[in-house]
Amino acid sequence: MQAKKIKTVWQTVCGVVVGAANSLFGGGGGMIAVPLLTKTGLDEKRAHATAILVILPISLTSFFFYAFRGLYDVNVLIPTAIGVTAGGFLGAKLLGKLPTKTVNLLFAALQAAAGLFLLLKG
Question: How confident is the model at residue 25 (pLDDT cuts 50, 70, 90)?
Fold first, then answer.
């Protein structure tokens, strides 16, 4: 029973870290969620799928805070939402079909590209 409590506390701490990162950086919490969720014992594909599920309430909560302050652009919102929805559908279909190793490599490449972009941008 003690191990289950420790695991639940660890999962909660992971949630706090992911939520703070997602809100602070305007997204990207999933990139932190996946490695943290694998540390709690989830296999890679379950970690990816769970990360997507936990990002929805985080994103909605963040949106309300940003919207209250007027920090959004409605002209960008609709086309981006359509694109994100289509990409999410495609990604969910691919996750079920791709081997775990391929998913890990794609995920690592995306993280590396995002990090490189931020380094070169600044």
Answer: confident
Dump pLDDT digits (tens) for 95-116: 889 998 998 899 889 889 988 9
CB 40 within 8 A of CB 14: yes
Cα angle value 31/37/38 (rounded, 5°) = 100
Q: The whole model's pTM is what?
A: 0.66
Closest CA to 94 of 83, 81, 107: 107
Whole-number Å distance between alpha carbons of 74 and 84: 15
* Domain residue ranges in the chain: 2-121
Look-up: residue for tokens 């003690």? Answer: 2
Q: What are phi and psi of 76, to 5 degrees?
A: -90, -30
